[in-house]
Amino acid sequence: MKSKVQKASPYWNPILETLPLEEMRKLQIKKFRRIVKWAYEKSRFHRKLYQEAGLKPGDIRSYDDIAKVPKVEKAMMRGIQRKDPFPYGDALCVPLEEVTEFRQTSGTTGVPVYQPDTWQDWEWWAEAWSYILYAQGYRNTDRVFLPFGYNIFVAFWAGHYAAEKLGCEVVPGGVLDTEARILKIQELRATAMMATPTYILGMADTAKKKLGIDPAKDLTIRKITCAGEPGASIPSTKQRMEEAWGAKVYDHVGATEIGAWGYECTAQSGGLHVNEALFLTQLEDVETGEIIEEPGRRGKVVITALDRMAQPCIRFDSKDVAEWSKDPCPCGRTFRVIKGGIAGRADDITKVKGVVLAPTAIEEVVRSIPDLANEFEVVVTKKGDLDDITLKIEILPQAEGKRDPLLAQLKDQLRLKTNLGYNIEVHPYNSLPRYEVKAKRFKDLRKHG
Ligand SMILES: [Zn+2]
Which region holds residue 379: left if phi is over 0, alpha if psi is between -120 and 50, else beta? Predict the structure, then answer.
C-alpha cells in the first residue's frame, strides 16, 4: 500500500497556473530582464549579438521592448559549437565544472547542437515536466512505464525525473525490445506511459499481431503523454491511439534547446497550454515580425526559457507555427492556449501548386479513414515546371476488397481539406518505413533535386 500524501489541488502550482495575465506579464518582464542581463554579462556570444544590435540589458523596460532583442536561430547555435570552452562554445554562462548534463539535438535537419545544463537547470527541466504530467492526471498512485531508449537525446529523460518528483513509480523500459516492453507493462500493470505517436501506434500493432494482446482490454495503461511529433494534437491520430490503448492521450511540446514549454490538460479542449511561468512564448508574423496577440492568426513561435541558466535560450526561433485560441480552457488555468497544438514547422509549411500546405492536414485525412494503415509518406517533386505531389499509403488487409471506393473517398477528403490533387500510390501492407523516433513522412524534393 502506498501511503504518500495526495495533493488536493488540480494544479501543480495553484498560484502561477491561475495568475491573471497582467500579473503574469509583470513576472515575465522581471525574469526576462534578469536572463538578458545574465547572458550579456556571462556569454560572449550573447554580448556580441546584443552589442551589434546596439542593445543594453537596461534598455528593456516594458513588454514591447522585448521585441528589440535579437532572435537566436538553431544555425547560430551550431556556429558556436566546439569552440572554447570545448565542446559547447561561448554561449556557456557557467564554468564547465558546473555542467552536469550533456544532451544534443536529434539533428534531423543538420549538424546536432550540444546542450549543456547544470544540476539546477536539470531540476528546472523536471519542474517544467511536472506541470505537464500533473495537468495530465499523473499522481503518486501511478506506475509509469517509459518505453524509451535512454541516450544522448533529451526526449523523455525529464519526463522520467518529473514522474519521480510527483511521487509516481517509474519503470525505465530502456533497452527492452517492443515485445518485452509490452509484456513488462502487462506484468507490472503499469498505468501510464510516454512515447511518440508513431511508436504508440506501432506498439499496439505489435501487441495484437505478435502477442495476441489487445492493449485496450488486456493492459492497464490509462494515460499516455506524447512528444516528438504533432500526432496527439491531430484529432484522427489521437483517436486511433486512444482506441488502440483504451487510454487518454495527451500532447506536449518542447525542444532540446528550449525545454518543455507547452502541454495539453485533462480537459482536452483542443489545444496546448503554454507554460507562462517558466517560458515567455510569443507568436510572430512570419513576414513582418509583428507580435501576434489576437486569436486566429498564425505565426512563428519565438520562445525564451526564463530560468534556464547554463546556455540561455532567449528569443529562440523555434520554427514552429501556431495560433492563439480565443477560448479560455475550462480547466481554469490562465496559461494561454495554442489552438490545435503546433500547426507545423515553418520549414514544412510550403506552397504546392500555389496552395499553402501543412503536412499535418494530410495526416488528419489519412488517419481519419479506418481502412488505411497508420503509415504513410508524402513526396513533393517537380515535373518540368509543375509541382507534383504523391501520397503513399497502405490499405489494411481486410479492406483490400473495397480498394476503389476507399481511394475515391481518400481523394475527395484530401481535396476538401488541402485543396490539392494527389497521385495516390498503394503500397503493400507493412512495407512503408516504420519509425521508432521522429517520423519523416513529408519529403519535399523540389529544393534538393
Ligand atoms: Zn486546460
Answer: beta
